[in-house]
Amino acid sequence: MPINGFVVGVVGVFAAVTLVALGIPSEARAQIVGGRPIDIRDAPWQVELVIESDGRREICGGSLIAPRWVLTAAHCFVGTNGIDRTQARFGVTDIRSVGPMVVRDRVITHPAYDKSALANDIAIVHLTAQAPGTVIALLHDDRVLKSAVALEVTGWGATQEGGGIASSLMSARVPLVSNTVCNATASYSGQVKPSMLCAGFVQGGIDACQGDSGGPLVLRQSGKPPLLVGIVSFGIGCARPQKYGV
Question: What is the span of the domain harbouring residue 130?
Answer without folding.
Answer: 1-246
